[in-house]
Write a structure and sequence with these properties.
The protein is mostly helical. The protein is 51% helix and 10% strand. Helix 2 runs parallel beside helix 4, helix 3 packs parallel to helix 7 and helix 6 packs across helix 7. It is globular. The protein starts with a helix and ends with a helix.
């Protein structure tokens, strides 16, 4: 988002890395009742609602593939993970950011299912894109993220895989909560809590 706003080319690795060094990212509890679990602040400005726009989606893979950007953000991500019980989402969280996490879950769905969900999410915010374009972009991003040299998309070998095609959000959340509770119970039994 900062790169697009500041006019830093997505292919300018040095410029992107320098930009990351200069920005201030912070997270706070949600202040807007729109379903978000938190607010993301970029240099003090709440940018949460703009995170999932097509413009940002189109830039994410290029920026996240930049080794300098990843190196700068890794300590920030690890600091967030060290705060205790936290849910983190990302394509390299369980393999790079928090490889020692007690519970690793790999949510999986077919590209078609994920595109359907993303298409509906965009439509709900007033963004009308053809389903085929959403699917094509998702497949392109998956390919780019899986083949990047630094921290590629990969399932951690010890992650629990949950297939989500054709399932309701409520059903998936119930399974996630059950796994979380079982993990927390095992930690308490071991005295890790």
């Amino acid at each position: 988002m900062a790169a697009l706003r500041d006019g830093v080319a997505l292919t300018d690795a040095a410029g992107l890395t320098d930009l990351v060094r200069r920005i201030d990212l912070s997270i706070r509890p949600a202040t807007v009742d729109d379903g978000r679990p938190f607010d993301l602040l970029l240099n003090g400005e709440d940018v949460t609602s703009r995170l999932r726009t097509p413009e940002i989606d189109g830039a994410v893979s290029a920026v996240s593939a930049t080794p300098g950007v990843r190196a700068e953000l890794l300590p920030v991500q690890r600091e967030l993970a060290s705060r205790g019980r936290v849910v983190m989402v990302g394509r390299d969280i369980a393999t790079v950011v928090a490889p020692d996490a007690e519970l690793k879950i790999y949510l999986d769905a077919s590209p078609e299912e994920r595109a359907r969900r993303r298409h509906a999410e965009l439509a709900a915010t007033g963004v009308e894109l053809p389903y085929d374009l959403v699917l094509e972009d998702l497949i392109r991003r998956d390919a780019a993220d899986s083949s990047r040299a630094t921290a590629p998309l990969a399932k951690a070998s010890d992650a629990i895989v949950i297939e989500t095609d054709g399932r309701t959000v409520e059903d998936i959340v119930h399974e996630l909560l059950d796994l979380t509770e079982r993990t927390a119970h095992a930690q308490r039994e071991r005295g890790d809590d």
